[in-house]
User: What shape does this take?
Amino acid sequence: MPRPHRETLRTRVGGFLRRGAGTTAALAAVLLALAAYVVQGALATTRATEEQQHALEIDALFFEARIAIATQEVNLRHYQVEPSVAVRQRFEQVSVTADRTLGEVADIGSGQARADALRLREEHDAYRELANELLDVTAAGDAGHGELDRLEVTPAYYTLQDDIDHVSRAYHDAAQQQVTALRQTQVRLLAGTMLGFAIGLALVGMIMRLVGGYQRRLVEQADESRHRALHDPLTGLPNRTLFGQHLAGALADADPADGRQVALMVVDLNGFKAVNDTLGHQAGDQVLVEAGRRLTAAVGDAGLVARLGGDEFAVLLPRVPGPGTAVALGESMIQALRRNFVLAAGPAAISGSLGIALLPQGSGDELFRRADAAMYRAKAGGAGLAVYDASADTGSRDRMQLLAELRALLDEGDPLGRLQLHYQPQVRLSDGTVTSVEALVRWQHPERGMLPPAAFLSIAETSGLEVRLTCHLLSLAVHQAAAWRMSGHSYSVAVNVSPGCLIDAGFVPAVLDTVAAAGLPPELLRLELTETSIMADPASTVRALVEIRDHGISVSVDDFGTGFSSLAQLRHVPADELKIDRMFIKDLGEDPDLRTPDAVMARSAVDLGHNLGLSVVAEGVEDVPALLRLRDMTCDYAQGYLLSRPVPAADLPAACTRAEEIARAAIGTAREPADQGRR
Assistant: This one.
């Protein structure tokens, strides 16, 4: 190659290399600058994102605290309407949630956020202290709780609510400002290079998606929180709060002129506790869900079904023509509940007690009270359904006061022994020996004096206290019988059982546990049930009585002849004794020929009892001729004022001695002419 050509090639190659090196250097510089810009932009974006995330976290925590405080107030109001341990526990749970959330803000926040959180926490502590005081006053039944609520609790709540609303909105705005700042940083990053623009755009898109998703989640959580605050989490039905709102609206819209009424139904499940105890709480939850579904299907578009709590539901019919429509719908609901529940753990038989109250206008609380009273009356009578009846209402001021005092006695265990048992001897007519006594309750009221059973038993039976009261009295009688036995007097004690006890799944186990705890031989306890109460639910009653008798406890059919029961049903009752009501005995002494209808009924009852293999007791024996005529009829036992009035436990041994003396003197007088004739 000629030299000039070699020099030209060398020059071109050198120029290419120089330009390549320069281009490479320039490219490297651009890449380094771009890299630095991107790194700087990434760092700036990261800082902005962290600040925004922190702001959103603060915003979310304040919002959560706001929801918890509102839910705390809802539970406080719920407790004032329906004091219960469950409601107070929910109040404490949301109180702890609110306090914990504000504490988290104080821990992760700084500056103003920390100061706001600490201030709100102090305000919440003050409100919580006042609210707990109101809960205690409400639980104690103190009439001054309204003034405490109005003057202290409500102002404290509204002060706290206004403050946290203001703070929550402020930090929500701050979070939005952080979003705006982030967008500005991204725009500056986009102004650099196309690559930076692409990267920044991708980053903005990603962050916007994250922010948008987080905001959507916040909105969804808020909606879910509102839904949870107004709906039962298990069944999905409206809760008491939402139901109360609908009830208030229905009452406000009610127009008496159009002939329509507002109907409120309260439904309580019978046998639900037995499902929980035997099949487990999961099965109980399945029953509640299915019961809610059946009630909703039965009501349809005619009204609203809500779960009030536990196994209690409510139904609102905002416009019904009259009681007949409400009763027909109520009966369809009761029938729906009576169908067997097919559960994963096995089938379960549940029924319902439903109370109906109708009101053209007025207070929702009053309507609830009336429906509740009707429901308890339906449960006590075993009819399944009852419409509110003012004449049978336990809601008069005087009766409500007695009900409250009786409930308090049972809640506290009656430490002063206000509920007392008096005992009336029963004499065996063959030899005049006292073998058993009947326990009869009295209430030593601190202001009203000694109250007889008629003054308060009906209140207990129509207010859901009959099982608790019967179990309490049963425990007194059993332990007293055990004490007598230890002192050498093995009296059999008879205890009257209220109508609803034998359809309560927990009653029979309670009886057996009481007898075992007292160490009393089961044969020394006898349960007395009225003929009418047995017939209210024969199937359930017979099952319970069979279990009781299998454990050695005897059963007596009380007030026989007054219930007009079917003898075909009565013959299947597993009983040991028949008690003839006093109405057939009171005039027996004035009928020497035993030809009056009462005498015929008494003799027929004795013959019927003996033919069924039962011993027969006559109540209300008040004179010697009646006693002798009963003995002539081969009646087995007698009790009444002739022999002894009911007496306190301490006086019973002496009363039994007197009763035996009276009976033996009468029997001896009756025997004397016959003995002389034989001589």
Q: What stands out?
A: The first strand starts at residue 261 and ends at 270. Residues 238-387 form a domain with the Alpha-Beta Plaits fold (CATH 3.30.70.270). The radius of gyration is 40 Å.
